[in-house]
Amino acid sequence: MLVPLYEAVYERLEVGSSTRLLGLGCGSGLALLMAASRGAEVTGVESAARERLALARERLLPEAWGTRPGGRARLVAGGPADVTDPGRARYNLVTAFEPIGCVSGDAEALDSSLAAATRLVGHGVPVVLAGWGPPERCATSAVLRAATKPDDEPLRGESGPRTALRDDLEEAARRAGLRPDGSGRVACPFGYADMDNAVRGLLSTGLFDPAAAATDPVQVDKELREALNPYERRDGTVWMPNVFRYLIARTA
């Protein structure tokens, strides 16, 4: 769903064979695969979603494909602190494409990763942060808030949804000691073949895990379907228009 975001950033920063990219929270590796197909050397780190990291290995590593998808690729289970390199300042691009600004504490959770990542790069290296756009332009963020019942503490769990703020990305950059150097907005609609497909897709993000733990998966499934109902079309497809924002910041 975020392919337009990845493409916009890679075009703007001219990602190619001279790029050595460190991807924070790389998930299933799609953004890394797109960079590698441009000839970039990529390293992805993922500490939470081990199942998605396994999928990233299938997509990126030579033993899975028989050939490399483009540039060299490496995956690390953990965070940037677990990346070991013989030399400093090896990477010339850092990306954190997991959007912040939709769940309480998600921006602050990125702080330690950014701090560790900036120690692996030199001065003036671009660091890309991504976030949810304004709530009125992000249908999916409204679904997330509705389905996790922000007014119901037991269903919400430990970390509940919140409204994205205009300066979420700038604040995260400031805490990491980064200097903002441009931003942009990208349309990233979420489209699904049918309601079941939409529910599976959204549940796979992990954003509903606290709610499922606080109640049960059946209840979360019910709430999610009700929240998605306004976006179901007559042909059964589910379509949610969204706008995401990215910030390019540079290391000091």
Please give the count of helices.
Answer: 12
| Percentage of residues in helical conformation | 25-40%
Amount of beta strand? 15-25%
The CATH architecture of the domain at 3-136 and 161-190 and 241-250: 3-Layer(aba) Sandwich
**What composes the largest sheet?**
7 strands, mixed
Helix/strand structural class: alpha/beta
User: So what's the CATH class of the domain at 3-136 and 161-190 and 241-250?
Assistant: Alpha Beta
CATH superfamily of the domain at 3-136 and 161-190 and 241-250: Vaccinia Virus protein VP39
List the main descriptive attributes of the protein structure presented here.
252 residues, Methyltransferase type 11, SAM-dependent_MTases_sf, alpha/beta, Rossmann fold, 7-stranded mixed beta sheet, 9 strands, 37% helix
Q: How would you sum up this structure, described in words?
A:
This is Methyltransferase type 11. The chain contains 12 helices and 9 strands. The chain is an alpha/beta fold. It has helices spanning 3-13, 30-37, 50-60, 62-65, 106-109, 111-118, 139-147, 153-156, 168-175, 195-203, 209-214, 217-228, and strands at 20-24, 41-46, 73-77, 93-100, 126-132, 179-187, 190-192, 238-240, 243-250. The two termini are 32 Å apart. It has a domain at 3-136 and 161-190 and 241-250: 3-Layer(aba) Sandwich (Rossmann fold). Helix 2 (30-37) links the parallel strand 1 (20-24) and strand 2 (41-46). The chain is globular, with a radius of gyration of 18 Å. The strands form 2 sheets. Strands 3-2-1-4-5-9-6 form a 7-stranded mixed sheet, sandwiched between helices. The model is unreliable at 65-69 and 150-158 (pLDDT under 50). Helix 1 packs parallel to helix 2 (30-37) and helix 7 packs antiparallel against helix 12 (217-228). 42% of the residues are buried.
